[in-house]
Structure to design on (439 residues):
């Protein structure tokens, strides 16, 4: 599938169809993905998904509407579909009310990046997975292949992005039903890196055979692995939205108001280069943003609608005003020293079911997931039964954040509902002097 040529052909067929003062934008998303599902360390299902979706928006002054359609990839079949979508929109748009917050980027811009190359060799990866999982009860899914995104407008905007990646998300189950969850993702499969991830999962699996420890509610020292920290930052990502901050709906409201701060160890960037998300949105090129600087608030994510409503300057954040390529700076903690520095407390590999218990206070609640261990004197002693936490980010990532690991880990979204997700986070692990469990 030559997605770029297909996208260009769609644009060439669309431009001559415009009339008078009409304008358009065309958003294009495609993937050519291979999926392999594992159960009990055997391949149970393998398949390939090739799909293309486009969203055509038609503008007439401040009136606009959009039409989503699925495409075949064959231009002879897709031209009539696109023409039909345009005709449907043309019949609808004049009857709509003007949009007072519509701020279209009418200056031409161009952004192109292509790192699709040869997709990761799925057969090689699957072979190594099966070898490494021999004798284990492994359940997981491996997804790999190129993803494509394009955007263009009748005013001269053009963006194209192509990137190949893989994501292997798996769990190792103990005979007692407990599990260790792990993931390995990136753009280049490395046998050595995968072997180390699997060896670490095997080691933690052995500890699950010990009797589980039940802890009383209270405050504990804790280490949050990158996957656990990822769940927290996923909840906080919308807190950098200009709209959320202006309306008082951001969980980071106190931080940006100056009444609270985070630890000086926390520096967080929206980093365009090196991420798997496009370097553009439908509102123009994205740029690097320093969201948090040594615990203090930095820039906000500002879409054009927020810019129009609140008198701000848009920075390409798009409608959702949510980070696409978060990167947290690492610290000085070597991974080999994590247990020794923790000394006595909780090693938390994953969190789930997160929600806000008090959004204005930045307070989160959720559950420990899969392999959480009790550590004493720098040694894992026993697995810990599922516990609920309830704590404020201004506490555990504030004065109680003691250290961050030196080498951040790349985490890709594992979601495949409808299509593989794009974007990435690069996060360290976090050593906390206090983390509150409630039951």
């Amino acid at each position: 599938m030559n997605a770029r040529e297909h996208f260009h052909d769609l644009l060439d067929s669309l431009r001559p169809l415009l009339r008078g003062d009409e304008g358009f934008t065309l958003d294009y998303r495609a993937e050519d993905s291979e999926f392999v599902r594992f159960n009990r360390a055997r391949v149970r299902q393998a398949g390939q998904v090739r799909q293309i979706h486009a969203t055509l928006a038609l503008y007439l002054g401040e009136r606009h509407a959009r039409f989503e359609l699925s495409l075949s990839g064959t231009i002879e079949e897709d031209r009539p579909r696109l023409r039909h979508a345009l005709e449907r929109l043309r019949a609808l748009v004049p009857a709509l009310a003007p949009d007072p917050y519509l701020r279209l980027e009418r200056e031409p811009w161009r952004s192109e990046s292509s790192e699709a190359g040869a997709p990761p060799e799925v057969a090689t990866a699957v072979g190594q997975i099966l070898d490494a999982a021999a004798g284990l009860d492994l359940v997981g899914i491996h997804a790999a292949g190129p993803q494509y995104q394009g955007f263009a407008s009748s005013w001269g905007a053009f963006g194209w992005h192509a990137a190949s990646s893989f994501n292997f998300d798996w769990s190792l189950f103990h005979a007692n039903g407990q599990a260790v969850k792990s993931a390995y993702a990136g753009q280049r499969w490395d046998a050595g890196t995968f072997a180390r991830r699997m060896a670490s999962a095997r080691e933690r699996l052995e500890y699950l055979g010990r009797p589980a420890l039940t802890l009383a509610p209270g405050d504990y020292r804790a280490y949050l692995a990158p996957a656990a920290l990822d769940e927290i930052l996923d909840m906080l990502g919308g807190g950098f939205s200009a709209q959320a901050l202006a309306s008082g709906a951001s969980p980071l409201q106190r931080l940006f108001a100056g009444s609270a701060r985070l630890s000086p160890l926390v520096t967080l960037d929206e980093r365009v280069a090196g991420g798997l998300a496009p370097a553009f949105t439908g509102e123009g090129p994205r740029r690097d943003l320093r969201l948090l600087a040594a615990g203090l608030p930095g820039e906000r994510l500002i879409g054009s609608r927020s810019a129009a409503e609140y008198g701000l300057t848009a920075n390409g954040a798009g409608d959702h005003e949510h980070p696409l390529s978060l990167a947290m700076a690492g610290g000085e903690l070597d991974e080999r020293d994590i247990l020794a520095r923790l000394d006595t407390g909780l090693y938390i590999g994953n969190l789930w079911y997160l929600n806000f218990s008090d959004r204005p206070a930045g307070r989160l609640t959720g559950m420990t997931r899969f392999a959480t261990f009790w550590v004493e004197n720098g040694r894992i002693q026993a697995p810990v039964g599922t516990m609920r936490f309830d704590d404020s980010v201004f506490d555990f990532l504030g004065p109680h954040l003691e250290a961050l690991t030196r080498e951040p880990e790349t985490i890709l979204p594992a979601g495949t509902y409808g299509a593989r997700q794009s974007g990435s986070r690069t996060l360290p692990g976090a050593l906390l002097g206090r983390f509150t469990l409630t039951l």
